[in-house]
Amino acid sequence: MNPSALTAAHRSLPFGTKLRVTNKDNGRSVVVRINDRGPFVKGRMLDLSRGAASQLGFIGSGHTAVCMARV
Fold it and tell me: Is the pTM above the cut of 0.90?
């Protein structure tokens, strides 16, 4: 896995699925591709790569509320 790539992990979406993920706090959005399974933390639906989190502006906090939509 390339941490700077725009990728994400989801428990059930097929690999290769593209999602537009929008940070609810600042309105920034990015398109990511599902390439892994997870997250394994209860209550989370999506794990983003470091590159995607950086573009969404929440790298310092570690997590944030987002909206997801298939592209």
Answer: yes
